[in-house]
Amino acid sequence: MKRTTPDQTMRVVTLRAAGWPLSVICADVDLSLSTVQRILKRNKTKRGELQEKMIKAAKEELSNSCTNDESLKDYFKEMLIESVIQARFARQKALQALEAMNPKSIEEAALTMRAIAAHATASKAYSDNLRQMLPGTEPAEELPEFVIKLMTQSDMEELRLEQEREKTEFLEAPAISDIVENG
User: Fold this and answer.
1) How far apart are CA 112 and CA 101, in angstroms?
2) 59 CB burial (10 A radius; 0-12, 13-18, 19+)
């Protein structure tokens, strides 16, 4: 009768505690199913036992870090600094885009300004949400909702039509110089 080695026993117990199925463990350590079952029974090992312990430990660590005032202050401080950096970056890029903007067409100008406005809107929403998370601030009436939607062909056509309408309205609008002259 072939004896199992301490390494095989340790491997069987470790793999089962990590949640591995018996068939895979048997193949991995080259032992029969009954031998693997005997080892597990002798060592009182349950499937996934290690995973449960790790999950419990991670939950406790997360809970402790979230209730620690200093760690929360540090987290919010980092988030606010990041928000300020992003806002500065957005302003710099907007200025660079405006200075370098020599559009060949009205479409290029509109697309550039649309991109700048989108980035500014996202930055503002991010900053507003950070401010609302800070202790001592009143919650907003309603938080913005971020929705990701898979667009169908008809959705894309509808969006293109809306963009064409906006472009036409923009092109047909009187120039600012005309408005100022005509008062």
Assistant:
1) 8
2) exposed
Angle of helix 6-17 versus helix 49-67 axis, rounded to 10: 50
Mean pLDDT of the 138-149 span = 60
Among the listed residues 5, 50, 52, the one whose alpha carbon sits nearest the alpha carbon of residue 31: 5
Contacts of 14 (CB under 8 A, 6+ apart): 50
DSSP 149: -
As a whole number of Å, the CA-based R_g of the chain is 31
**pLDDT per position as a tens digit, 26-72:** 999 999 999 999 988 888 877 777 667 777 777 777 766 666 667 77
Residues 6+ apart with CB under 8 A from 173: none
pTM over 0.70: no
CB 91 within 8 A of CB 119: no
